[in-house]
Amino acid sequence: MLDKILKASQLRSLQPLNRADLRKLARYGREVRYSPGQYVFRENNKGDSFYILLAGVIQVSKQIRGKGQVALRTLKPGNLFGDMALFTRRPRSASCQVLEAAIVLEVPHDKLRKLLREGDSTAYKLIHLNCHLLADRLNHVLDLIGKDSFATSVENPMFLRKIKFFWAV
After folding, report:
1. Is the terminal CB of the chain with fewer CB neighbours within 10 Å at N or C?
2. Distance, first Cα to last Cα, the chain
3. What's the domain range around 84?
4. CA quadruple 78, 84, 90, 93: dihedral positive or negative?
């Protein structure tokens, strides 16, 4: 796994984490391999870990009333996911299904909380990274809403539902 971690450290999507930070997360986490079609997690499951995709492709989707399963985005190596459950402690609000054989680093939330209690810089860098991810997700949602003719103001209840559903992962 170390070679995958070192390769992942070169991906822009994982900055500000460096090799030492990723090695530390690897010590606290575990490598998990998934075959195409398998789920890393499903919507409504308990969320007790976050993940870094080291290899493969994963699709994030959500069950939408009246529309069925809707694809939200596609994850590629270097993407962090499953992070929202860390902050909300609520069940997963989306599913992550493997499209191409995947290798993930799974890090239990309690390990990250331990690093935070200890004042470890890796944990703070990870939270910094997560803030950027949330901002990117919000910008994407705002772009989607801008294309919807019915969403003309932030007071529209659909606006809030779309934001909540997009941040689901």
Report:
1. N
2. 24
3. 2-166
4. negative
Domains contained in the chain, number: 1
What CA dihedral angle connects 9, 93, 42 and 84, to 10 degrees? 30
Inter-residue contact 15 to 48 (CB < 8 Å): no
Q: What is the pTM of this model?
A: 0.78
Cα(123)–Cα(165) distance, integer angstroms: 26
And the tokens for 125?
């860098």
* Residue the block writes with tokens 């609520």: 90
